[in-house]
Design a protein that fits this description.
alpha/beta, 9 strands, TIM Barrel, 10 helices, globular, 244 residues
């Protein structure tokens, strides 16, 4: 197990470094999130030993069960990268370090209440639907002519003092090839630049995009967070995959 995860991790790091240099970027500006949803804590510790410090989780109740062991590891960060149900916002507000998937105003309001209760603040990314797929979560952003409709939404989120907007996140269509996904990543980058011109008080420094099959294309378009799961951790155990 150790050799497999460590070897996989190093291979991804090498590909990140190469892709960043080809893009004329500093590899240190690309942060690797190891996606560990459905994975046992023992495998997460193996990834930590290989060098991972940022971990992406989707299921707050599952993550909460792992935290007793994970919090013993120095420098670890837990990032919420999936759709968050309102009833599980308390767990994220109390135990997670980042929220990548702010996809509606109702979850903003719920997180704000929970963060106020816990006395915490949280850096967040706004999830944007840049493909127009109905199955995708996120704010509608596939039509550039309608980007101005995002302004009042972001105004409202920016007024929430417990949340600090740090950038954008997206998921391209699953059916798209690695090269096709680059066009969606380009749209997200252009949207970020548009919003940075409208909200100069916000620090728009993060773009969370790119997974195991397309992270190199994402790096070429400016990704600062990439989310890699099976390419490092291997398949998720079937029993764990059934957790919701």
């Amino acid at each position: 197990m150790t050799n497999s995860i460590a070897t996989n991790y190093q291979k991804i790091i090498d590909r990140v470094d190469y892709s960043a240099k080809i893009a004329g970027r500093n590899p240190d500006d690309v942060k690797l999130i190891v996606v560990t949803k459905g994975q046992p804590v023992e495998k997460m510790i193996e990834a930590y030993k290989a060098g991972a410090r940022l971990f992406g989780e989707n299921y707050p109740e599952e993550t909460e069960k792992k935290l007793e062991e994970l919090r013993k590891l120095d420098g670890i960060e837990i990032h919420m990268i999936g759709h968050l149900q309102s009833r599980k916002a308390q767990i994220v507000a109390g135990s997670f370090d980042w929220m990548h998937s702010i996809d509606r105003l109702s979850i903003v309001e719920k997180l704000d209440r929970e963060l106020q209760n816990s006395g915490r603040t949280m850096p967040v990314l706004l999830e944007m639907n840049v493909s127009g797929e109905e199955s995708k979560m996120g704010f509608s952003a596939w039509n550039q002519n309608h980007w101005n409709s995002l302004i009042p939404i972001i105004d409202q989120i920016d007024s929430i003092k417990t949340l600090s907007i740090r950038g954008l996140m997206t998921m391209p269509p699953l059916s798209a090839s690695a090269e096709q996904t680059r066009s969606y990543f380009k749209v997200l980058r252009e949207l970020r630049d548009y919003l940075a011109g409208k909200f100069k008080n916000i620090k728009w420094d993060e773009l969370s995009m790119g997974t195991s099959g397309d992270f190199e294309a994402a790096i070429m378009e400016g990704a600062t967070f990439i989310r890699i799961g099976t390419a490092i951790m291997g398949p998720r155990p079937k029993k764990q995959m059934e957790i919701k």
